[in-house]
Amino acid sequence: MEIQNQIAEILQSELASQKPEKIYAIVSIAEDIYALDAKNVLEVLKFVELSRPERLPSHIVGLFEYDGRIISVADIKSVLNIEPTPYDLNSKIVIINVDDNIFAIMVNKVLDVKRVDLNRIQKVPYNTEHNFIESIYDYNDSQCNILNLSAINNWIINNPDDGGYKNGFDLIPKDGYSLEILHERKLEYIEKTSKNPYAILSDKDEFVSFSVSDNKYCIKMNDIRGFYKLQEIKMTKVPCTPEFILGLVNIKGDFVCIVDVKNYFHSQKPYCNPTGTIIVLNSDEFKIGILADVIGDNIQIKPDEIVTLKRQENRNELMQYVKDGEIYLIINVPEMLSNDKLFVR
Prior knowledge:
CheW-like_dom_sf, CheW-lke_dom, Chemotaxis protein CheW, alpha+beta, 2 domains, CheW, CATH 2.40.50.180
């Protein structure tokens, strides 16, 4: 019997009481905290050099080429009519897709990606002309304003100017050192995307790196279905299961079995990092996740750079890749998912 089916009987009663949830990206803009619906967020980038081919509306900081199209990068401080404050080299560009229109906004920081109980969210007790803020909830004892991204998208498209607020372009650094750094970042981004276009997320040579204790691992991007913070999900330990099974969690109605790869591959003492990230593996047949301490960078690995390790029990679940003196263990997900060890009989 599959492990996740075993736990289904234990946790079935929890399904009826589960609270509706939504995932938000939490950001800071000036001194305030805002939330963006994560389903609309395509990517978060370092602040790079932007182009300004002509006079632009004051709420547009500049233009940026993304996924083969030119998009606007907006300073929504002016849209929200809050005090203009400058951006710096640590600021971020958040790429957003609303109704197939892609644009970006400048934020000072990305604070968190958080699963929010919808019962904690309150509608704003007023109406305005544009309703840029659709609701409010408490984030770490501070008010977090949930942005109406459709309203902001309409404003950016339909307003040639925002009525005289400080020009967003004036809020970005202009000193020589900052301009040089921004230009270098743009060149790095162009080089990266020229080799790896936006479809990079489905490229067979793209891997996600992560660490578990003192070991570094990689998994093909194609073999990953999603990432979830363990702190935001209740995990239940299942009796009479192998040590490498840390427990099961319920993610969007699916019971996902969480594996400790250090115990699974190396028979080391199992450990559950309560602040770790669950990497859910991409499989229609099995619901398996791996608990990582830290998610690292994406790495391009060509087939001829992968070293096959000694097969164990006539299986080849682990391979090896070396970069800058660091050893990464590559998990062969299809081989792992075909191992009878993952099943309880």
